[in-house]
Specification:
mainly beta, Immunoglobulin-like, 2 domains, 7-stranded mixed beta barrel, 6-stranded antiparallel beta sheet, 21 strands, Transferase
Length: 290
Amino acid sequence: MAFGAGNPSADCIADSAGGLTFDLDVPGHSAADAAHWSAALVLRRRGADAVESPEEEVRLPLTPNGDGRLRAVLPSTVALPEGRWDVHVACGEAPAQRLVPGIADLRSLVDRRPGPSTSPLAVRIPYATKHGNLSLRSWLRGPHAEAGDLRVEAAGITGRGTLHRVENPRAWLDGAVLEARCRRAAELVRTVPVTAEGQDFSFTLPFAVLCEEWRGGPEMWDLWLRGGPEGAEEARVARLLDDVADKKQIFTYPARDVAAPYAPAQVGPYYTVDNDLSVRIDERPPVGGR
């Protein structure tokens, strides 16, 4: 039997503020009985022990939705730390049961443009796991640098983005720089200037500056936007404001050949498992294969 087979399903509606509404049927229970038994939608952070870390479990009351079903609401104002959250339903004393995805209305997440605020940006995207269960991917960012159009050219990357969740985007971006930080060695940081227009910014990152210290093998550089008063604030460049929970396999970009000092290399941008923007350097395969 497939994972999740026979489990109750939940329909999900997203709103533009970052909130989610779940509507579901619970076999053996009706909405009319909801007042007489304890029922909750339970979110458990992946890999967390709810007994050891109670803050890693969120319980949302289930109430009749007026249409013969049960409803739970996760407002954008309820803090949900970053990570993957598995969705369960708990009824009375029975063990919590995983939910499977029903109909998902995520239209409000497409091309989402948050309003002005300095509170952290809440992003929650429901998705089906590889076993067919319902989970949420959650982000909580502030400030947030949303990656936009990205063009990969022979010499480097030209990108655009939008800054969110700062009090004065113009002042924050005045003199801001894009930082590429090497995961292999924290002291290796390369910066390029950004051009700002309102809360939008653009940058060009040459591949050559990332290849200067490369000594073979795969090497990753993470992209950050640094600005604010005297460059004291930072924001990870990421793509979060849409309905795609995992962008690594969806938004793919070509790698370009670079004549690096150490050896011929291939360099290109990619999105990480957290939907953050990074750059990968690797050895160029020999012509004709090995």
